[in-house]
């Protein structure tokens, strides 16, 4: 049935996370009547949903923050080097209030379908709340890690105790005191939450499929003097982030890891250890392109694990051997490896004894059943494409996004898909976002989209669409750059390989946020080659 109410807007944004809120701010700045629909009952996106104990950003707070407002960045005071989830959520809510964004957000509403009306040049968008929108522009700010996934084993619904997913954590505090807890998954979420749950639980059993590389966060309270000093030079620092590879300023490497002595290399790795997420990866020019060079960094981390974990067998099980360092997102932790030295913490190697099923009483591997009271899935997300393909997106001539992407996502700049006019993705597949400080990528994408729309509207055009040639060219460029690295060697969510049946394809752009921005700026300066501007055939009746 057709919904009773259809709201006409200039732009509809899907998702009120850090991307959607800034998009709303920019579109309003252009005078466009804009609504954001958001599935959660609050703003914040990732930082609204991921409330598990220990949830924290792995990029420093002074860098993982908006740069578009000097007043905001000068006035907001961060308390720690790495911000916790509650602190980031407070920041997002502050931004929503400060820029008057809340009245543009419809909460507790999920977009279910979006159909392009080619004659009118508009999107017809329906939601699960039973309402609909008629929008000229449709911006997907749906996030890269927003579709939580649970293991593909029988019985996940049969467990009689409490079940949690890190990406859908309850709002009220969960108390694990005195309980037997299972955690499945050792990605960033698992590695952050395991030491915290171990503090409370009577028994903690961790089910690990693939060990990950983790480095100490070395988190600490921010010294007010240091914060003030950073803010004094914020412009320069932001600029350095924007022109960097990963969106975090680091000194560019000049040497191969293989052309220096073992002692010199160790000293360099030691200096980068515990400094930030990207230092170790950025120490040498060839760490992500040459397996032998990469092995030196991988072995450095494995040595740290052996030095920390007292049981040599546990240390070996925790040591990644299958994938090169950095090709799955490395983690930052607080006491992760040391947690396995505690008597009540146990590690189960699912490579040796695979997960067979979830039972009413707990977890069964090929070897035995583990009885627990609570089950925590830290099993990640259907990344990058999951949230987009959950929506029935139908473009020109009845083409669906699901069919177009059946063999993996193809995009122009990660922003548009040919045949889907006026549909924009913020941090879409083919953009550098997931390999970067998200805030740097989000601001760049949002600014590009807003500037492009201003350019179109100034010329009286209301339809913007990537050309098929530009999409093919960009997708090929993303592939070539990716295949020159070690990233495709890992079974990572960047590759889609954490979701059975998903096409295996490196979905991120590893050319760096600096190079990407330069390319986008150049396109904008040249009138957006690769994008076609037009007016709809039938101008809607007034
Ligand atoms: P991740 O990084 O995708 O980690 C998920 C973990 O769950 C990972 O260890 C997976 O093992 C494991 N997993 C997933 N499915 C299964 C099944 N079926 N059986 C056993 N184990 C499984 O998600 P996170 O939430 O930790 O982090 C997501 C991103 O957020 C992170 O990369 C940062 O960018 C921030 P696998 O490695 O697939 O063998």
UniProtKB/TrEMBL annotation:
Pfam families for the chain: Pyr_redox_3
Family matches, as SUPFAM superfamilies: FAD/NAD(P)-binding domain
Entry GO MF terms: oxidoreductase activity
CC cofactor: FAD
The entry's keywords: FAD, Flavoprotein, Monooxygenase, NADP, Oxidoreductase
EC number from the UniProt entry: 1.14.13.-
Source superkingdom: Bacteria
InterPro entries: FAD-binding_Monooxygenases, FAD/NAD-bd_sf
Keyword Chloroplast: no
Protein family: Belongs to the FAD-binding monooxygenase family.
PANTHER family in UniProt: L-ORNITHINE N(5)-MONOOXYGENASE-RELATED
Protein name: NAD(P)/FAD-dependent oxidoreductase
